[in-house]
Amino acid sequence: MTDAEIDYEVDAEDLTLAAPREIRDDAKPSLVVDDLHITYRVFGGKKLGTATQRKDSFVRKLLNQGRSHVGSVSEVKAVKGISFVARHGESIGIVGINGSGKSTLLRAVAGLIPPTKGSVYVAGEPSLLGVNAVLMGDLSGERNIMIGGLALGMTPQEVEASFDDIVDFSGIGNFVYLPMKAYSSGMAARLRFAISASAVPDILMIDEALATGDATFRNKSTERINKIREQAGTVFLVSHSLATVEAMCSRVLWVHQGELVADGPAKEVCAQYKAFVAKSRAKS
Amino acid sequence: MTVPTQRKAPAPAASATTGAVPAPVTPSLTSDQLRHLAETHGLKQMGVRPPLREYVRNLWARRQFTAVLARSKAYARNQTNYLGQLWSLLNPALNALTYVLIFGFILNTTKGVGNHIAFIVLGTFTFRFFDQSVAAGAKSISSNMNLVRSVHFPRAVLPTSSVMSELFTALPATIVMLAFAFGSGFLPDMDSIPITWQWLLLVPAMALLWLFNIGCAFFVARWVAITPDLNNVIPFVMRLLMYGSGVIWTISTHVTNEFWLKILDYQPVAVFLYLVRSCVMDDPTIPQSPARWVWGAIWAVSFIVVGFLLFWRGEERYGRD
Ligand SMILES: Nc1ncnc2c1ncn2[C@@H]1O[C@H](COP(=O)(O)OP(=O)(O)OP(=O)(O)O)[C@@H](O)[C@H]1O
Ligand SMILES: [Mg+2]
After folding, report:
1. Is residue A147 within 8 Å of A139, Cβ to Cβ?
2. Residue ranges of the ABC transmembrane type-2 domain (chain B) (predicted)?
3. Which of B157, B176, B288 is nearest to B221 (CA)?
4. pLDDT, averaged in runs of 10, over chain A (284 residues)
5. Which residues numbered 154-213 in B keep a CB inside 8 Å of some CB on A?
6. Which of A132, A269, B4, B133 has its CA 20 to 30 A from that of A179?
7. Contact: A128, B150; criterion CB under 8 Å
């Protein structure tokens, strides 16, 4: 599948929401990202750039052969100098092709990967909802709710008090007592979303976590996201579905090969991105 | 204060029609302005190591998280077996039986001890607690990658809860150990193991060993997270320690060199083995020794303090692959 075949699967009726509010530029900032660079260290595998066949001397070939088995460490520059400011109450979409660095950017903002260079400043505790929604696969959903809630800084009493809410919201019913590895991906995503949203995070980052949800869940989660924004939280949404991004976000960042290439109102940036996608589809 | 606006004018409409990737956005604020903006609004910097005081406070605030994580993991460990939680008793029992069979009956490695079955049982149970704690500490970050990659909390929670979960498995094992030791007293040729008030001293002895284990877990967790290769070395270090601590043999009757005797006797693992044995066994060769208690306390405190500092100094690097 090429990037061009990114879906537009969301039905317009699914998203009968008020258009996202515009945020004025003088609202208080909740996140400041300053010249962020992230470099991954990868063990194993060939050095990037040596994958193509080249005419090398026998000795060098032998050396390279050895290097890919012993002590091969390469670097991947995933984010290369991104700066932006996000404000309270804003919901920001992030678009870009596979491997452009969207997830990496969010992880750095959540404080989960230290920047190689540059800095990230946030107000309050950010919470990241990733593609892999399972916290502890061996444990029951019930345990995962407790662990997830405590990890987010709630007290056990608070988690217990919101337990029923979380289970209700996730809609997984009695499955909450089974180990999470027995869940479908959508069920896991629903539970994770319910846990993260219950703590009312200051910054909620959703990395394709809604993609596996069904229509009911998508409606519920959109409502919850709007509630978080009303409570002055900031929401980030990474999605390959431009319809979702346009419906839920007021502002969109387009990340391409680790760089920020567009930052502006959702409509405009999405139009630009669509044109780019259409063009690369025509090429392939 | 007026804050300059950040968002630039929309990119030229040309790229909306041509489909070319626009040039990277040039930030409208300089680094200094951005930092100033962040500071005036009280934002805190992410991905940097917090000061020690704050780190300790955050860790303390997550104590319930640590305990719940530990309990859940101790429980989950045996869940995939038919016999389930029974394995937390069977495992250490089989382990001790193996050593008792070889070293207690076939080879005679424990000269001078009145009840060598109890000697070996106590040794293997105690060492196993240490060994498993270090192994769990080494894996504590990589085995919780999902958690590390999705929530932000002081990473010292992970080694601590791993060792705590070993403690939860060690507690039922201790009952088995005491039952074995007591039972061995009824075998012919074995000194009896009376139940005395000294058995209560087992509680502080295990507590000190537990602290020591957490300290060791901090060391290995940091080393393995930064240089994964070290995980391959740990089993050999453990084996070295096992043979060098008199788990299955008596140090004093086999080592004649004064210098080595001192080192082997007072190195931390041997000290803890001695403490546990002196609490349970009523053997003239293993009397209660205040000096060893002091040594045990010194080892436990120094390992946990130094280990914690070392771990904290690497804090910002643990999420990275
Ligand atoms: N754990 C990792 N170790 C090494 N390199 C990584 C790792 N995760 C991502 N990368 C690299 O970083 C770059 C950006 O990856 P990232 O996951 O941020 O992309 P993405 O925009 O989220 O893509 P997708 O749309 O597929 O989710 C890619 O080149 C990828 O190879
Ligand atoms: Mg991604």
Report:
1. yes
2. 83-314
3. B157
4. 42 46 67 91 64 60 64 83 90 92 90 87 83 75 90 88 90 88 86 83 83 81 82 87 87 92 91 89 79
5. none
6. B133
7. yes
d(CA B186, CA B22): 85
Instruction: For residue A254, give the ligand nearest its CA.
Output: 1
What digits encode the pLDDT tens for the residues B56-98?
999 999 999 999 999 988 888 777 777 777 888 888 888 888 8
Environment class of A173 (CB within 10 Å of its CB; exposed 0-12, middle 13-18, buried 19+): exposed
DSSP per-residue letters across A184-206: -HHHHHHHHHHHHHHT--SEEEE
Put simply, the answer to whether A85 touches B17 (Cβ < 8 Å) is: no
- E strand intervals along chain B: 44-45
pTM for this prediction: 0.83
Both ends of chain A: CA-CA distance in Å? Answer: 11
Contact A181, A137 (CB under 8 A): yes
Q: What share of chain A is helix, strand, coil (3-state, %, to 5)?
A: 40, 25, 35
| Predicted confidence band of residue B285 (pLDDT cuts 50, 70, 90) | confident
Nearest-angstrom CA–CA distance, B317 and B49: 9
Residue A134 has, within 13 A of its CA and on its CB side, a CA count of 17
Report how far ligand 2's centroid is from the alpha carbon of A131 (Å).
8
Phi, psi (degrees; rounded to nearest 5) at A201: -70, 155
Q: How far apart are the first and last CA of chain B?
A: 41
Site of tokens 């990496």: A104
Residues with Cβ within 8 Å of residue B291, at least 6 apart in sequence? none
From CA A207, how far away is CA A110, in angstroms rounded? 12
Q: What is the per-residue pLDDT across B12-68, written as a single tens digit (0 to 9) for each?
A: 445 556 777 787 787 777 888 888 888 888 888 887 888 999 999 999 999 999 999
Contact A153 B68 (CB under 8 A): no
Q: Which two tokens stand for residue B261?
A: 């005797």
Ligand 1 neighbour A132 (Cβ under 6 A): no
From the number of C-beta atoms within 10 Å of its C-beta (0-12, 13-18, 19+), residue A163 rates as middle
Ligand 1 contacts CB of residue A96 (under 6 A):
yes
The 3-state DSSP class for residue A18 equals: coil
Identify residue B318 by its one-letter amino acid code. Y
Q: Amino acid identity, residue B100?
A: V
Q: Between the CA of residue A269 and those of A166, A181, B141, B202, B236, what are the distances in Å?
A: 35, 38, 39, 68, 57
Q: How many CB atoms lie within 10 A of CB B37?
A: 20
Predicted local distance difference test score (pLDDT) of residue B151: 80
Q: Is A123 on the interface with B (CB under 8 A)?
A: yes
**∠A214-A218-A223 over CA atoms, to 5°?**
155
Query: What's at A152, amino acid-wise?
Result: L
- In sequence order, the 6+-apart residues with CB closer than 8 A to the CB of A158 are A149
Token code pair at residue A276: 């780019």
Ligand 1 atom closest to the CA of A258, numbered from 1:
14
A191 touches A172 (CB < 8 A): yes
